[in-house]
Each structure stands twice: as structure tokens, then as C-alpha cells.
What we know:
11 helices, single chain, alpha/beta, seven-stranded mixed sheet, 44% helix
Amino acid sequence: MQTVKRSYVELMHAVANHWPLAALTERAGDSCPYGWRRWAASLFAIYDTKRMVALGLPWWNVAATREVEQFLALRPGARVFEFGTGASTAWLAKRADEVVSVEHDIAFIDDFREMLAPLANVTLMERSIESDGEAYIGAISEAGGHFDLIVIDGRFRGDCLNAATKHLARGGLVLFDDSGRKRYRPEIEASGLSEVQHFGRSFCVPYPDYTSLLTRRV
Length: 218
């Protein structure tokens, strides 16, 4: 399965550099972020953070992304914590006052730092996932305070969700990506949060996928 996945990604990257697909990607950056043109361009940017940043997209379900953008637009001065750094970090930084993002892959962070250099409101935390991910999961407590939006899109997602609930601001939102995977369902259902699960067109992949938005129950 991993071989098939790797071959698919390599193919998409190879064809993305050839006209007219290269032209499609270039023009897509000016199109509607939730339209079919931008989504189609994202398919050729799978696992290519630089291309995704250029497209101005996170790797989430399209409908969930739109909802998060609307949420942040109504929360001036929003503070965001993100488990798992990527193109979403740059996307969030343009819509929130502060973004704190934790990542375990040090080599990736070193490459990504240059792309984030123009964004002064981003703090990157490098934390190991050894010893059951204690440092990685605990990064949100280390950052301190409460967050309007918490994104869970990295390692140890169930444990990260448990940690996130203690730092979720009043009226805040948790985005839990890939929430359709069976291994994540027990923690989501036991979290005590209300869930709106989005399933359908998602950036970077040609098949429908899941992203859930979680809020405190009233």
C-alpha cells in the first residue's frame, strides 16, 4: 500500500511541472479558494508544502476549511494552537492573531522555517515524539493559556484531543482532521465535545475525506 501511495505522489509531482498543468496551478492561486479549480490544483500539490502554501490552502476537507475561515473572521485577535505543522500553519497565520504550532520532524521544520519567515505571528515548537509523545502532547500546556482554535492533525491525536480540551477558550473550536479513521473514533466520542463531521471533497486527495469540528456542549 505504501508503495502505491508513494508512486501516486511521485506521479502527481512529476506531471505538475508540465504544461498545461503547471499553468493551471499558477492561475488557480487567483481563483475561488473553495472552487473546483483550486481544489484540482491541490491534487498535484499532495505532500508538497511549498505548492500548498503558494495555493493558500490547508490539507483539510473543503467544507470544514470554509467553516474555520468564517469562524476566525468572527474572532478578531484569535489565538490558535496546532498539533502538526504544514501548509495549514501559513493559512492560519493569515487569519489569526497568533499561531503556535508543534512538530516532531526537525528536518521538515528546518525547511519550513524559511517559508514562514514573513509571518511574524507564528511560533514553531520542535518536540520529540519519543517516550510516548509526552513532550509533543504537552506542548500546548507549555504554550499556556487558552486558544480559540486548536488543530489536531499530527501524531498521538487522541491524546492531543484530551490535552486540547483543557486549553479550549469559551466558544472555541477544535478541528480534528481525518476523523473518519476508526482508531480516532473512541477518543472523539469520549471527549465530551459536540461533533460536526464534514465528509466530502478534500484538498490534495481525489477521494472524499473527513474533517470534524468539535465544540463544547451547551
